[in-house]
Prior knowledge:
This protein is an alpha+beta fold. The chain has 8 helices and 20 strands. The strands form 4 sheets. The protein has a 6-stranded mixed sheet with strand order 11-12-13-10-4-14. The chain has a 6-stranded antiparallel beta barrel with strand order 15-18-17-16-19-20. A 5-stranded antiparallel sheet has the order 6-7-8-5-9, with helices on one face.
Amino acid sequence: MTNVRQTVYYDIHTDLGAKMAEFAGYFMPMQYEGMKAEHMAVREAAGLFDVSHMGEVEFRGEGAQESIDYMVANDVIALPDGHALYTPIVNHHGGIVDDCIVYKRSSTDILVVVNASNAAKDFAWFKQYSPKVVPVDISDDVALVALQGPRAEAILARASGATDLGGIPSFGLGKVTLLGREVMIARTGYTGEDGFEIFLPPEIGPDAWRLLMEVGAADGIKPAGLGARDTLRLEAKLWLYGNDIDDDTTPLEAGMGWAVKLEAGDFIGKDVLVRQKAEKPSRRLIGFRVTGKGIPRHGHTVHGMGEDGTPGEAVGHVTSGTKVPFLNETVGMAYVPRTMSAAGREILINVRDKMVSAVIVKGPFYKRS
């Protein structure tokens, strides 16, 4: 544990009594008051997350957008300046190296934010396969926070004095002034809620955190840990790398077809995905809602259900599952054969040698109004 790093917010977390644990090489807050309270704060008011353990990579100069476009499945070339997109990074076998957000400040100035657990792997991948420009790892220069929830815009407006935040669309970029410094913001996040990711210089990170918490107190803002971040993303049916997607799952199997632009330019793994789309994936990642008693977890086997309600052979496995606080339901995701993936189909899940009934559902479990 001697090589575990601390973010610039470490002292704030410990002062708040956060339960800390090692994650992706950093000491990170798992929870403060409790995962449920933090989850509900994000859904009903606002939560502030330390996400400065994430990896940030810049592509600058002529050929910047062409370089990243070649390494992701979505269409960066067609993305307007000042906007971001979600995309898988695909390997030569069609598997997912990582999922990331590409922020296009201009055609010659691209920022990519990757998952903390994959940061070193992703940077090595970018360096090896970037065709035109040399990527630069700027992770140590960014103290990223995520302000998420229906009151996020109002809180950030008061903290920064900005009057035009409502004009920033979903996945749009902007700038605000915090503590006398102009900083980039983006209407992005991974909670299924409205909000902003704020790209802060490390030297003002802690004071900016305190400012946001102070001005947001009347709105019910709470600091939120990685525990709530996980339940929020699952409630919104968002993928977790290493659980729901990995190097051996393709974007088409994982239900990311909307983020794969096969009609656009060439990219690594495109030929495999073109073929898989034509042939149709043999398995699909589905969402399910538990109708019985039990909480399926990662690795539990999924079984078909006979007409008499008896379980069939194992046909797949759960990738994520838990009881989510806002919906107050047990939900999850699992890979099953494509022929068994239709919404409304009943399945059984082996939870500690007990068969628990569930039903396949279409779309996100939670979607903000």
